[in-house]
Amino acid sequence: MGNKEQATIKHKRLKMFSAFCVFLWLITFCLCASAEPQLFPKTRRDTGPKPKNIHGVVQDLRGTPLAGARVFLKDMKTSVVRTLETDQSGQYKVFGLTPMVDYELYAEFKGKTSEKKFVSSFLNREDNVLNFQLDVAVIENTAGASTSDQGATFKTFDLVELHASFDLPVGVPAPIPAVLLLHGFGEDRSVWKDFSKELLNRGWAVMALDLRGHGESRLKNQRPMEASQDWRTNPHEFPVDLDPALDWLKSRPRVDNGKIVVIGFDVGANLALIASGRFQEVRTVVAIKPDLSESLAMAGSAQDFVPRSTLIVVPNESEAARFKVAVKTRSRIIMAPHSGGTAEWTADKQIKDAIFQWLKETY
Known about the structure:
The chain is of the alpha/beta class. The protein has helices spanning about 5-40, 195-200, 240-250, 265-280, 290-300, 315-325, 340-345, 350-360; strands at about 50-60, 70-75, 80-85, 90-95, 105-110, 110-115, 115-120, 125-130, 130-135, 150-155, 160-165, 175-180, 205-210, 220, 225, 255-265, 280-290, 310-315, 330-335. It is elongated and about 150 Å long.
């Protein structure tokens, strides 16, 4: 093979090698170009924390939504407080809150306040759900009372529909002292008619309740009910009516809801004594013709029967002696031999004068 042929072959090999190198370079370039977004990702623009939204539901302990409850939202940086109100489904909501701020929230309804909850500025969460529960009874008739009898309807936790009358005195500025009247077994709230007028004339707001199985309070879970004599010693019947009745009365906007008087006759007197030791808002009570044995049974035990600030009106000395032993705290016991029901006892001048003197001293 001549030199010329060898040079030609060498030249061809060199061209082929160069073409192969160019081919490899093209492949490498394509691979690098396709991998570049993964190897060198573009950084996104940081827009910062998003505004916070807070929403939730306010309910009672049975899970019933509380319409008209207030939720207080406090900006912990500026101490500015916003007030939100729940809708008919018990829901509240607020949007677009500054994200780099701590917030404090709590709910309030009928004088009862929930625990406080917080949303931290360190929690980078746009949507925040905070629900609240309050130990209150659901009130069905929330219309404001006037000087005329507007009436009240509300339910106990065992679904008894209770009815009551409610009257405000004319020309008395708020806060107005209030009285809850509880009739005897076999009666209804109408027995307080004359005595209620006396209270109104003296500047008291008056609520007279029909106890379960009496008057208009004869439905339980939409079914008719009748009072039983066994209820006189049952802690799960008449005493259950106290809590929602007091809650309703305390919710009246012009009433002094921290100082309520309870006056009762017979079964109502037993309930008044129980209410005296059970509810802080009850300032004092008047128990007309109570029965100590029934009172203890209704309370559940002697440990749960702790009356305080009580005027007790009994018909005889033996009953007076029993109450002197049982009631240790501030009390006054008077004897008034009498017969008849609520209306007859409260019409007696001696009893009436003793009641109003007691209220004057203790309220």
